[in-house]
Amino acid sequence: MSDSQSLPLPPGSTIGMLGGGQLGRMAALAAASLGYKVHVYSPEVDGPASQVTSLNTVAAYDDWQALEKFAAAIDAVTYEFENVPAATAEFLVKRIPVRPGPNVLRICQNRLREKDFCNSIAVPTTRYAEATNADSLARVTRDFGLPCILKTAEFGYDGKGQVFISYGDDIETAWNAMSGGKETAAAIVEGFVDFRMEISVIIARNGDGSSECYVPVENHHKNHILDQTHAPARITAELADRAEVIARRLAEEMDLQGLLAIEMFVTSDDHILVNEMAPRPHNSGHWTMDACITSQFEQFMRAVAGLSLGSPDRHSNAVMKNLIGDDVDAWQSILTEPGAKLHLYGKAEARPGRKMGHVNRLSPKI
Ligand code: AMP
């Protein structure tokens, strides 16, 4: 459906949200303060997002009847995770504006397409190649040399579906570990990057082509899950500028209408390589909720609704710490800390590895 007919969405409109996790929850709260309603569509009952809105559809992503009713009840639709099935996005785009568009989803859903896209517009990535079985994996690793990282091309997150392959490792074992024992699968082999820092940049872009970028931040992982984000990243202004130029180029070339998070590696010789992109709010942008004039969630909702974008300027520096599993038990002591802002996601059970909330610790801007 043509986007121009419905832009900007006036306050009181309803934004559809595919996915019911914490990103949808925080986006719905931001949307509410702009006067919008959010209708959450998710197979999950009582998820973090549905707790904060009265408009909910609990149904599968291929329940066409439920999707038809959902489309009729909303003015535009977005998503809080990029693994929305392509057929669902195609179904919805025939009925209402989908932002970011299905072309952006297509690129970001698949690591091979993502890296092909980057390279087609001269945005550097690590060396990579496709592998579809153990034989092709063996060929690529011979060609690249070790170490390498083998990843599923689709549906991987937080290090899931990833295998580090080092000298002397058995290729067949590595293949089976990634594919869960399947003989053939869609996978990518990446050259191992000996990075000195992981950074990310979040950019918002509107239908009229204007964009706003948050300062690059520095990310630290534990057990493949984001543990802390330092904002801003402790890098030179020149490197920060280069990271921003990359983000703007990617957003423009994919004609983004929404939010895009780009994870990048900074190498020891100060090259920047794009690792991964997500067309939605990102865990590494949670610090913006308390340290910036416009949070990533408000910016996301503004971009989806076709409003003018807000200032991404930060008034404080911040360290965001994820509360994973039992970490959340510290909620009472966090509440007593000066300069700390606690955000909990309303999840009942604190399982290991589960993101339960986060805390933003603020300090004066330097
Ligand atoms: P990803 O799911 O691609 O974000 O990867 C999860 C984490 O694994 C990254 O944040 C990095 O710490 C590490 N990693 C992924 N790809 C590479 C690579 N090509 N070289 C070195 N480390 C990597």
Describe the structure in your own words.
The protein has 366 residues and is an alpha+beta fold. The protein folds into three domains: 106 residues, Rossmann fold, CATH 3.40.50; 65 residues, 2-Layer Sandwich (Dna Ligase, domain 1), CATH 3.30.1490; 170 residues, D-amino Acid Aminotransferase, Chain A, domain 1, CATH 3.30.470. It has eleven helices and 17 strands. Strand 11 and strand 12 form a beta hairpin. The radius of gyration is 20 Å and the shape is globular.
Structure at a glance:
The protein has eleven helices and 17 strands. It is of the alpha+beta class and 366 residues long.
Radius of gyration: 20 Å
- Topology as a string of helices (H) and strands (E): EHEEHEHHHEHEEHEEEEEHEEHHEHEE
First-to-last CA distance: 46 Å
Stated plainly, the CATH topology of the largest domain is called D-amino Acid Aminotransferase, Chain A, domain 1
| Approximate strand percentage | 25-35%
User: What low-confidence regions span 5 or more consecutive residues with pLDDT below 50?
Assistant: none
CATH architecture of the largest domain: 2-Layer Sandwich
Q: What is the chains' assembly state?
A: single chain
Which small-molecule ligands are present, each listed once?
adenosine monophosphate
Fraction of helical residues: 25-40%
Estimated structural class? alpha+beta
Strand count: 17
Q: Let me know the CATH homologous superfamily of the largest domain.
A: ATP-grasp fold, B domain
